[in-house]
Amino acid sequence: MTPAIAPARHSDRFLRLFGWYSCRLLRKRFASVRFADNTDALIRESAETDRPVVVAMNHPSWWDPIVGVAIKHLYMRGRFAISPIDMAMYERFGFMKRLGLFGIDLDHPDAGQAMLDYIRGCSQKNPELALFITPQGQFSDVRAPIVVRPGIASAAMSLSDPAVLSLSIEIAFWHDQRPELLLRAERCTPPEQQTTANWVRAARDCMQRNAGRLTELSVARDAGCLKPILVRKGSTINPAFDLAQRARGQSAAVTPRNQSRTEASS
Description:
- Helices cover 41% and strands 20% of the residues.
- The chain is of the alpha/beta class.
- It has nine helices and nine strands.
- The chain has two domains: 5-233, Glycerol-3-phosphate (1)-acyltransferase; 236-266, no CATH class.
- It has a nine-stranded mixed β-sheet, sandwiched between helices.
- Helix 1 crosses helix 3, helix 5 packs parallel to helix 6 (151-158) and helix 6 (151-158) packs across helix 7.
């Protein structure tokens, strides 16, 4: 029988290069990347502790792994990061193993225990571990109720006093040709009784609450509560249109009507 786990093959140099590339790609494809409620401070604080960190991400799109690599690059460069990925994807995209992704065969009868053994082994060798995981296990719309698999609970209980964070991602079109990529972090409070069921509920409730708050800000288009961490430079709508606007002495940016009224009355 084939093994349930295929280990990562870390390359610090490749990870730094891909982290830079991920940030560049996000700047290019999105109008901006914004953190809600200044909660990027939670990630920075957790990264600076000597505890292992578990980052539980929702999984709405193809962009999620790129976001994870960018967060590692911006906030957790000193951390030894790992993340599980389906074995088929691991074998198809071999470069991922150099980013710290390890393959897991979810159909293997020993998959769960093998994953925990691997995470525990990495933590023992690298106490400042950062585990990025998508507990939903599949692409899920941000409007759908959060449903998590028990792997997040087992992972949290296999580590020594981990800092567990929910990282919520939402992509929204606002006033630019390109969408906004919105992020929000929230600390998950460990359950009093460390059981799989209790950890699943704690992670699910935290992720649902976090996603709900981010959706509220996305719907409100309240940029005041969203701090830009990556901003695209250059054209906002179309290069020709932008040039024509600048020739008229006007801004190419699209300003929402309510913002214009607020600015005019102040």
